Amino acid sequence: MKILVVNAGSSSLKYQLFDTSDYSVLAKGICERIGDAMGVLDHKNLVKGTRTKNDLAIPTHTDAIRLVIKALTDPEIGVISDMKEIEAIGHRIVHGGHFFSESCIATDDVIAKLEQCYDFAPLHTGAHLQAIYGCREVMPDVPSVLVFDTAFHQTMPEESYMYPLSYDMYRDYHIRRYGAHGTSHRYVSGEMIKLLGGKAEGTKIVTCHIGNGSSISAVKDGKILDTSMGFTPLAGVLMGTRCGDIDPAIVPYIMKKKNMTPDEVDKYMNKKCGYLGLTEGFSSDSRDLEDAIAQGPSNPHYEQSKLAVDMLKHQIKKFIGGYAAIMNGLDAVVFTAGLGENNPRLREIVCADMEYYGIKLDPVQNLKAFRQSDIIKISAEDSKVQVYVIPTDEEKVICMDTERLTAKKAGIRGCYGKVNSERTNIS
């Protein structure tokens, strides 16, 4: 079975084509700058080991889907001969709100509910909807499956997901902790459970998805007990451009001082804070900050870069310690995603001075775990808590869910109908 996995952003669309006989990736790529005067299609044929990059206009996500299909079926750069070889499409969805607790096939009713989730993550959900509509328009007979980042977090108890607001805010507006990166936390915790013996019951794991966006989760018995992101992906530890957790009274204070509207302060906290804000615009990329730190005080950005990284280290430590407390123990800590997988120094300073919790790093193994695709144990042999770097594979999880659900629904093709053209204007 060949499955196309799609991950749509506000101005981009990433894709991977899987062969489920061995879950190999035949091709992958990205459409960037969708909606700009000129976009980019970067396509990799992993069978031939070739890469093609073209500048061309990509007005909408529907146009992006057409370009992806064209690339996949191209005699020179493609990996399939006909679009009909694609039997299902899996979509990564950031926020399923209170409607979705598991992956599901994208029927008209499901899409209508996803539209109601728009306000929970407008930058993400609008793009997801555009990609879904685009796939339905280009491939109307191919079933789509929606895989939600928030779904894995639905096992949280009320004491974890509720906020201490008046209860009507939860009842009427569904304000609660939803979490994010659930597909990643699900994958790496599952891999860690295998390393711990394969039985989920009795395991206590902290998974650290640290990237430009970051979240940390407590996974007990294979289920989420708590997670750092909240009602939106703005909460938790500081990130590339996001502030993470702050005193909520700061928000109206800033609005008054800077004469900001709600939308302006929301954009400020999401786009102008975190690494970028603390370094006064120097960079939102941890690699730039690490370079400045390595150069020492002579670098003009040294002090603020070090402050930002030290703050992230401090916050991750607090979450690990807090989650160990609510789980009544700790078996393993997992680092994943861009920084988690590729920043040995961050892992080192996070795990330093954690002997009380039984965490002891092997510095040699920690340095080996850099730009590797393999699972690597980085804890010392006498460490009571195992520490691993496990590269995340959200696309594989999406592919497997898509295969599972569409295999159960043989003959479902043709029941989806044409897309409503009015919906394609949602942004």
A few lines on this structure:
It is built from 15 helices and 14 strands. By secondary structure, the protein is of the alpha/beta class.
Describe, in plain words, how this protein is organized in 3D.
The chain is α/β, with parallel strands linked by helices. A hairpin with a 2-residue loop joins strand 10 (215-220) and strand 11 (223-227). The strands form 2 sheets. The protein has an 8-stranded mixed β-sheet with strand order 5-4-3-2-1-6-8-7, sandwiched between helices. The protein is globular. 37% of the residues lie in helices and 19% in strands.
Which stretches are poorly predicted, pLDDT < 50 over at least 5 residues?
411-427
Taken as a percent bin, the fraction of beta residues is 15-25%
Any idea what the radius of gyration is? 22 Å
Helicity range: 25-40%
Number of strands: 14
Mean pLDDT: 91
Structure characteristics:
37% helix, 427 residues, globular, 19% strand, 8-stranded mixed sheet, alpha/beta, 6-stranded mixed sheet, 14 strands
Question: Topology, please?
Answer:
Elements: E1 2-8, E2 12-19, E3 24-32, E4 39-45, E5 50-56, H1 61-73, E6 86-93, E7 104-105, H2 108-116, H3 122-138, E8 144-148, H4 158-161, H5 167-173, H6 182-195, E9 204-209, E10 215-220, E11 223-227, H7 250-258, H8 262-271, H9 274-278, H10 286-295, H11 302-327, E12 332-336, H12 337-342, H13 344-351, H14 363-368, E13 376-377, E14 386-389, H15 394-408
